[in-house]
Specification:
Helix content: under 10%
Bound molecules: zinc ion
Number of helices: 0
Strand order of the largest sheet: 5-4-3-6
Distance between the termini: 5 Å
Largest sheet: 4 strands, antiparallel
Length: 94
Amino acid sequence: MGTRGKWKCLDCGHEFAASDGGGWLFSLYRCVKCDRTKEVTTRHEVGGPLIPLNPKETTMCKWYGGELRDDIGPMCRKCKSRNTEQIEIDIFYD
Ligand SMILES: [Zn+2]
Ligand SMILES: [Zn+2]
């Protein structure tokens, strides 16, 4: 399940809104360089990992060529640190 809410940077104190996590039918990937997110449709195997339906979709950011990953947190918009934590949840989605 994913969430949308408020995040805080532990390095500079900046607060910003971001989404994190995927849903039942997709994973949320984010670019290591620009932090744009991309929803990637996934297949669920019972008791197994989420498998992207189209693995090619998940490798690269089309804007900056950064690597897309689903295991990193939102990046601070101000100082680009990923030392961030969620301080408020507005919406749960799946
Ligand atoms: Zn920061
Ligand atoms: Zn990017």
